[in-house]
Each structure stands twice: as structure tokens, then as C-alpha cells.
Write a structure and sequence with these properties.
The protein has 297 residues and is an alpha+beta fold. 35% of the residues lie in helices and 27% in strands. It has helices at residues 2-27, 31-108; strands at 113-123, 143-146, 159-162, 166-174, 179-183, 190-195, 201-206, 212-218, 228-231, 243-251, 258-265, 274-280. A six-stranded antiparallel barrel has the order 1-2-5-4-3-12. A six-stranded antiparallel barrel has the order 6-7-8-11-10-9. The longest helix is centred in the N-terminal third of the chain and has 78 residues, at 31-108. Mean pLDDT is 78; it is low at 124-137 and 293-297.
Length: 297
């Protein structure tokens, strides 16, 4: 009974206070207290609102950062694709340039019968030939392997040129669908050269160190740095006028009967990708003197 009575009095008291508060509010008697309460509560409300707003901005910023990162990743991928496509187009452009130059050489020499080919392998100093073609290992051999062979009409001794009529070497070995091209710088390579300016002839040979030399040049002949050396065509093994290289050094001794000239090959053998095999040409007659400068081969 005591507890029930206590609850009843509590409810009556709360009801009385509520009615009294409403009455005082309607009468305007509580305005000062309400103003004081608002003065205390308002800063707290603003602080809470700012905190909630900051949290919302943080969430918005996080979403913006994620969206920005995704956009950067997309643009990076697109840029990578464009770079790859640009490189591919540059490669095609360079390939087309080489093909045009090879075609130009063939058109400029209608008496030559030529065969286009691509380099499929190469070996230089330090590479065992047996690993590539199965012949005797020799670390000094320098050659290229092309994708044309006996079935295409390629034979040993045929000259091989690159764009601009630059001599690469001669076919040294032939398979059914491949051929080994001996480079000019191979130690066993020897061709007949002609200094374009002076019309002096002499053998051009490779050395074990990979250098290229024109030798047995008479001492009385003047050899100048920068002289261009072409094939002479003598002996009938090569067409006349193919570019071999340029003189970069001259060695002469008074007690010797001849002098030598070191040549810079006109072709970078490490960059050769496409070549022409000259399968037929008209040899120079043994009685025919070297052509004068400015005339064609």
C-alpha cells in the first residue's frame, strides 16, 4: 500500500507541475528561464551541428578522393595504351621506310635479280656457332641467319645488301629455308674494294677484333680520312658500286710497300633486320676499268 500510494502522489505531483508549467508559459512567466536555457544550449547545438557537418564533409571528401584515384588509374591505362600504339606505329613507319629503300635499290638496278629476306638470328664474337646452326664452334665468326634458303634460290657466294645498297656480306651456308650470311667484319671475309675519290682498288678484309680494313694500298696513293669505299666488282663475285664503308684511319710505314686504311662499315650489323639477296647480276668484265666517280655501278 505504501508503494502504491507513493506512486500515486508522484503522478499527481508531476501532473500538477506540468499544468503549472503550461500555465506559467502561457502567461509568459517562464520566458526568462527559457531564454537562459536557449543561451546555454545554443552553442552546444552549433558545436554538434558543426561536428556532424564536418563528418559529412569527410565522407564526401573520401568519396571524391576515391573517384579521383579511379580516374587517374583510368587515364594512366589510357596513356599506356596510347604510348604502346604510338610505338607500334613508329615501328611500322620505320619498317615501311626500310622497305621503300630496299625497293628503291631494286628499282635503281633493274639488271639485278633480288630476293627480300628478314634476319632471324645473329651471332658475333663470343657466341658459339654450334648453338645456332650446328657447325664447328668458333668464337670469332660473325654472321647473320636469314629466312631464305635453297628452296628460294639462294646459293653460297650471293651478295647480301641492306637499304641504300650497303653491303652486309655474302651467303656462306645454305639450308632449305635459311641461309648464313658472312659479315664483312668476319676474319675470313675478303672482298675487292674501290676508293671512290681516287679509284684505287684493294682487298677489304675483316679482323678478329671485328674491325674492317682495306689493305695493300700502294704507298704512292693518297688515302684521306672520310674517303668512301665501294665494291670494285673485280673478280665477278660482287656487283660494282655497293657501299662498304668510310676511311677513319690510315696506317703507313715508309719501309712498307703498301699502306692500310681502317674503315667504318656503312651498316650497323647489330641493327640489320631486312636485307636483299642479289641472286643474279651482270659481272664486271675483267677488261673493264673502274667507273669514273659519279657514274652508277
Amino acid at each position: 500500500m505504501n508503494r502504491s500510494g507513493s506512486r500515486t502522489w508522484t503522478l499527481l505531483l508531476l501532473t500538477l507541475l506540468t499544468v503549472l508549467s503550461l500555465a506559467l508559459h502561457e502567461a509568459g512567466q517562464l520566458q526568462p528561464l527559457e531564454n537562459l536555457a536557449l543561451l546555454v544550449i545554443s552553442p552546444l547545438q552549433r558545436t554538434l551541428a558543426d561536428a556532424v557537418g564536418g563528418l559529412s564533409s569527410l565522407f564526401e571528401t573520401s568519396r571524391d578522393i576515391q573517384a579521383l584515384q579511379e580516374e587517374i588509374a583510368r587515364l594512366q591505362a589510357e596513356n599506356n595504351n596510347l604510348v604502346a600504339e604510338n610505338l607500334r606505329l613508329q615501328g611500322l613507319s620505320e619498317e615501311n621506310r626500310r622497305l621503300r629503300e630496299l625497293l628503291g635499290f631494286a628499282q635503281a638496278h633493274p639488271t639485278y635479280r633480288v630476293l627480300g629476306s628478314e634476319v632471324i638470328d645473329r651471332a658475333e664474337a663470343g657466341v658459339e656457332v654450334a648453338d645456332v646452326i650446328g657447325s664447328d664452334p668458333n668464337p670469332y665468326l660473325r654472321y647473320l641467319i636469314i629466312d631464305r634458303g635453297e628452296t628460294d634460290g639462294v646459293a653460297v657466294g650471293m651478295p647480301v645488301v641492306t637499304e641504300g645498297g650497303t653491303l652486309v656480306g655474302r651467303v656462306a651456308q645454305v639450308g632449305l629455308r635459311w641461309a648464313k650470311v658472312q659479315l664483312l667484319t668476319d676474319p675470313s671475309s675478303r672482298v675487292s674494294g674501290l676508293i671512290q675519290r681516287s679509284r684505287v682498288t684493294g682487298p677489304v678484309e675483316g679482323r678478329p677484333d671485328g674491325s674492317l680494313w682495306m689493305v695493300w694500298i700502294p704507298q704512292e696513293e693518297t688515302v684521306q680520312i672520310g674517303d668512301l669505299v665501294l665494291t670494285s666488282g673485280l673478280g665477278g663475285n660482287l656487283p660494282r658500286g655497293l657501299i662498304i664503308g668510310q676511311v677513319i684511319a690510315v696506317e703507313r710505314q715508309e719501309i712498307e710497300l703498301a699502306q692500310s686504311a681502317r674503315l667504318r662499315p656503312a651498316v650497323d650489323f647489330n641493327r640489320v633486320e631486312m636485307v636483299l639477296v642479289i641472286t643474279d647480276f651482270t659481272p664486271v668484265s675483267p677488261e673493264e676499268p673502274p667507273a669514273e666517280e659519279g657514274t652508277g655501278p
